[in-house]
Amino acid sequence: MAAAAQPSGGTTTPRSVQDAPSRLSITVEQLTPRVVTTDTPSITVVAKLTNNSERAIDDLDVRLERGAPLTSESKLRDALTQTKPDQTERSRFLEAGSLRPGASTTVTLAVSVNGADNTLKINRPGVYQLWVNVNGQPAGTKDAANLGYANLLLPVISAPVNGSAPSPPAPKPRVPAGVTMMWPLVDERPRIVQTVGDREVLADEGLTASLAPGGRLFSLVNAADLAIAKNPALGQSLCFAVDPDLLATVAAMAKGYLVRVGDGPPAPGIGVAPATQWLDRVRRLTNGKCVLALPYADVDLDALSRAGAGHLQTQAMSAGTDRVREVLAPVQPQPGLLWPVGGTLEQRTVSDLSHHGPVSVVVDPAKLRRDTGRTPYLLRSGLPAGSRALAYDQLTSSLLAGDNGTAQGLAASQNGLAAVLFRAAWGGADSMLITPPRRWTATSADLEALLDGVSLLADQQYVAPKPVQRLMTDPTAGTAEGMEYGAQDSTSEVAGSITAEVMRVNAVQRDLLGAMAKDAALQVEPHTLVTPLQFGLLRATSSAWRADPAGGHRAAEAVDGQVRELLGRVQVEVPGRPASLASRESRFSVTVRNSLPVLVQVRIVVARTAGLSTKQPPDITVAAGHARTEWVDAEVLRSGRFAVTVSITTPGHTPFSQPKKLDLSSTEYGTITLAVTWTAGGLLVLLSGLRIFRRVRANRAAKADTPSID
Question: What is the phi/psi pair of residue 56, to 5°?
Answer without folding.
Answer: -65, 155
